[in-house]
């Protein structure tokens, strides 16, 4: 059998082409560390790769989302730390002002610092993320959240939208906090009860502290509020001849107006006529109807026995007597505190500690806490602090009452930011845990992909060895082909 030169050429070319194709395939497998280069190589493994690759991409997206949310929460946390520091310093200044130990010059210095701290807090609350997005504007990220109106009051221009981000297959997480929640909707009082002093109070009594001492009792009673504690200065005494008399303030406004002329003394010249002398020595006369109460300057006097000529009575505040009324106006409690030492008023699970001496008609009101913005509370404290130390006693009392009330609101603002910081920390802990879990899951899926279509160490070694063999075979085929191509009859003639 004779083999033609063409057949030899074709055989040589096929051998070289085959080796080159295998070398190319092995080179791709080795460089990509993949044993399945095309779906046709292993259709089942290729299909599994598509599914696993999608799963891996989902994990990578969740990990990215978790990182983005974590970065946002850390920036918010750092900003709230700065806000808490400003409010805390403001609170320290407020304590010093409320102590009453500062003169006008010292108070002016503290007030100036407090005004700067309020401005600083507004600036912090308007913080952006560096990309032009305000941290606390909700969905309205491009809108400055806090702006002063014409009266200097701070208005919130953001919205209450909370941006939820997918951080797991079935889990979303809020990536922001709104300024309305953080700064504008702060619980008033101590978060359980809010106490306020009536602005028309004339005495030196002020609320030193208000607390809920029986949660169950207050919870059961709070719906019947608001409650008022009114000091009524009711007392029972006797005259020089033993006549009992009960005094009650029935018109606090009239009695308060007469405060500058106290004390008053009353002397009967006969059974129906009396002479009234005020603290400045000014006298006046009046008539009395036997058997009826006698009211002078808003103070009602009820005599146990009709007075006679020569009977004398002292009319004045006998501080400490109070009555508690509910929202319907019904008296639900009475009591007395020591006018010299102050004392505590307890009702419906609430304890009010009173300092100073309340005048008749002075009232304190208690109700379920509402909400207030921290900026308004700070401004109210600043305004109250501007009342001079040498002002009238009732002015100083109003200052003390407002400062105490605003102190409670400031504490509420600090607690709100502290709660928010705690929430941020919990979210970050969850994100760290999820990122760790999802990273492990992603790596496991990557390992599965490698197992299905990739090359392990042994596969890689085998492929490299085969590649070397194929290269040798190609070189041999090329050598044979070259030799055949150079063969000619002329070489042997």
From TrEMBL:
NCBIfam families: flagell_flgL (TIGR02550)
Matches recorded under SUPFAM superfamilies: Phase 1 flagellin
Example of a GO biological process term: bacterial-type flagellum-dependent cell motility
Protein species of origin: Pigmentiphaga aceris
Domain Flagellin N-terminal residues, every copy: 3-140
Keyword Ribosomal protein set for record: no
Keyword vocabulary terms for this entry: Bacterial flagellum, Cell projection, Cilium, Flagellum
A GO MF term: structural molecule activity
Name this polypeptide is given: Flagellar hook-associated protein 3
Any one GO CC term of the record: extracellular region
UniProt family annotation: Belongs to the bacterial flagellin family.
Keyword flag ATP-binding: no
Location of this chain's protein in the cell: Bacterial flagellum; Secreted
InterPro entries: Flagell_FlgL, Flagellin, Flagellin_N
